[in-house]
Design brief:
3 domains, Butyryl-CoA Dehydrogenase, subunit A, domain 2, AcylCo_DH/oxidase_C, single chain, 15% strand, four-stranded mixed sheet, four-stranded antiparallel sheet, flavin adenine dinucleotide binding
């Protein structure tokens, strides 16, 4: 290619990653970006400061109309989008706020995916079309107060009583819990771990909201309390046996995080870049100083390497060749680098970086939760360590 036909350098896409995307991919990205700019960005600082997500049911219906709920699933009113398109949607949602992406991830990749993958045809018909439309919000109950990284130790228990099941226990840190119409709850039974589809209006079920959070403040987080919740026989997910069920759901959701975390990083990077071009010290914009440029160069390298990694994993998921260890690779790298980008961006903004007038500190504190949920850094390191060495170090 001659110099005259070489495309100009694009600071927003320095590696030309957009060239890897089909027109349909770009259309999904631009549609979600436009929605977030209109419906989230004007309000998100106030929502975060107040620690609430007002109008969540209306937002869910709007996201449903966009096809963003369960978008990579097929049938039952789901969009049937590609994995790359789902990833791009997660990227744009988290560029607005991690809490909005969490709403979509838990709805589609955890609650809906569990029913779609392991449910009966009756369960799918009953719940998935309404969840895809955002008419019913779902949540996913796996983590417990004393069992996070080791879900096999869960205490929530379901026992048979005639033809019914009776479910008792507690789940903790559950996104969407207080506004959900249906919960997918994992419990021990005499036959091992099973998943249950639990209508949240069932007697004995409650979901008190968790307050006083310093992260994911514009997200609804709850405890689930099951006090002898009686369920019919057909509430159990027929194909969801053992930990294979919930762990496969988590793999699907972690894939969205691989993309989403980079949305928070991109938003922080862009805010810092614009600030540096106009903020003057010692007679010129701070963007003109070598140390500031070094920060931008390092951040851009990690951000766009992460995007290449996310796209690669997306193409593997679309081809049916993506392994859980590879998703761990992506979450470990991209969330860790995204937090570092947010922190570095904050240093460029100086004291202004802690203000909600800018998105940087909000993204940084949100990512502290993203770093932990759906597998801590240590868990993903051990997943990769086991895959690389063949030795299981999970139990010391």
């Amino acid at each position: 290619m001659s110099a005259s036909t070489t495309p100009p350098f694009n600071p927003a896409d320095p590696l030309g990653i957009d060239d890897l995307l089909a027109p349909e991919d770009l259309a999904v990205r631009d549609t979600v970006r436009s929605w977030a700019a209109d419906r989230v960005l004007p309000h998100i600082a106030d929502w975060y400061e107040c620690g609430e997500l007002p109008g969540v049911r209306e937002l869910a219906r709007e996201l449903g109309s966009l096809g963003a709920l369960g978008m990579s699933l097929t049938g039952y009113g789901c969009a049937g989008a590609s994995a790359v398109q789902y990833g791009l949607a997660c990227l744009e949602l988290e560029a607005a706020d991690s809490g909005i992406r969490s709403l979509v991830s838990v709805q589609g990749s955890l609650a809906m995916y569990a029913i779609w993958k392991f449910g009966s045809e009756e369960q799918k018909q009953q719940w998935l079309p309404r969840m895809a439309a955002g008419e019913v919000i779902g949540c996913f109950g796996l983590t417990e107060p004393d069992h996070g990284s080791d879900p096999a130790g869960m205490r929530t228990y379901a026992k048979r009583d005639g033809s019914d099941w009776v479910l008792s226990g507690r789940k903790m840190w559950i996104t969407n819990g207080s506004v959900a119409g249906v919960a997918v709850v994992w419990a021990r039974t005499d036959d091992g771990i099973r998943g249950f589809v639990v209508p949240t209006d069932a007697p004995g079920f409650s979901a008190p909201e968790i307050k006083h959070k310093w992260s994911l403040r514009a997200s609804i987080t709850s405890e689930l309390v099951m006090d002898d919740v009686r369920l019919p026989q057909d509430a159990v997910l027929p194909e969801g046996t053992g930990l294979r069920g919930p762990l496969s759901c988590l793999t699907h959701a972690r894939y969205g995080i691989v993309w989403g975390a980079l949305g928070a990083a991109r938003s922080s990077f862009e805010a810092a870049l614009e600030y540096a071009k106009t903020r003057e010290q010692f007679g010129k914009p701070i963007a003109g100083f070598q140390l500031t440029q070094a920060k931008f160069a390092d951040m851009a390298v990690e951000l766009h390497k992460g995007l290449l990694l996310a796209h690669h994993l997306g193409t593997r998921m679309d081809a049916g060749t993506l392994r859980p260890e590879q998703v761990s690779f992506g979450k470990l790298n991209n969330v860790r680098e995204a937090i570092d980008i947010c922190r570095t961006s904050r240093t460029i903004l100086g004291a202004n970086g802690i203000s909600l007038e800018y998105p940087v500190m909000r993204h940084a504190t949100n990512l502290e939760s993203v770093l932990t949920y759906e597998g801590t850094v240590e868990m993903h390191q051990l997943v990769l360590g086991k895959a690389l060495t063949g030795q299981d170090a999970f139990r010391g």
